[in-house]
Design brief:
Ribosomal Protein S5, domain 2; 34% helix; alpha+beta; 200 residues; four-stranded mixed β-sheet; 30% strand
């Protein structure tokens, strides 16, 4: 695992235009521009608490709504994580983090399994946080799981403030992925799987 674990991905469709770079072994530096202030905040919190260096420049059809921009950025972020981890040799593989933010408490558990799946449970109040529909917060985790070929479980354990719940969830995701991507020197030349692969 001596190589730099970085990725740069560009994706352009009729709905969105995204350029993203990720350094898994970063220091939590983030430069994010999606056209959605609260989504920027969520991604910055993810990077800061995951110790990932993240740059995102995205434009999308926000005149329609926020859906395509939020979904596509999460997919590309997942793809960048998948690309940066390569064959996933020597990684810890699984990570678990529970993060409080005032009255909110959110748990995130990840498995860099090669199998995309997400189970997400939130109890949000009104329909929007800043400029992000609350329904899209769960969709971020589903889209990221798909792009990264990972299993992600998120549970809201407590909370009444939508902002606090969503932010705690993104911090927990960052911390869980930080733990899962860490190198384990005991298996430096092995994939942490009895089947011998996490990519097929």
């Amino acid at each position: 695992m001596g190589l730099e674990r970085t990725a740069e991905i560009s994706r352009k469709t009729a709905e969105t235009d995204i350029s993203l770079s990720l350094n898994v072994d970063g220091a939590g530096n983030a430069e994010v521009s999606t056209g959605l202030g609260f989504y920027n905040h969520m991604l910055e919190a993810f990077a800061r608490h995951g110790r990932f260096d993240l740059q995102v420049a995205a434009s999308g059809d926000l005149d329609v709504d926020a859906h395509h921009t939020i979904e596509d950025v999460a997919i590309v972020l997942g793809q960048a994580l998948d690309q940066a981890l390569g064959d996933r040799v020597g990684i810890t593989r699984m990570g678990d983090a529970t993060v409080p933010l005032d009255e909110a408490l959110v748990q995130c558990v990840v498995d860099l399994s090669g199998r995309p799946h997400a189970e997400v449970s939130f109890e949000f109040g009104p329909d929007i946080i800043g400029d992000v529909p609350t329904e899209m917060v769960a969709h971020v985790f589903h889209s990221l799981a798909s792009g990264s070929r990972s299993t992600i479980h998120v549970r809201q354990l407590s909370g009444s403030n939508n902002h606090h719940i969503a932010e705690a969830a993104m911090k927990a995701l960052g911390r869980a992925l930080d733990a899962a991507t860490l190198a384990d020197p005991r298996i430096a030349d092995r994939v942490p799987s009895t089947k011998g692969t996490l990519t097929d």
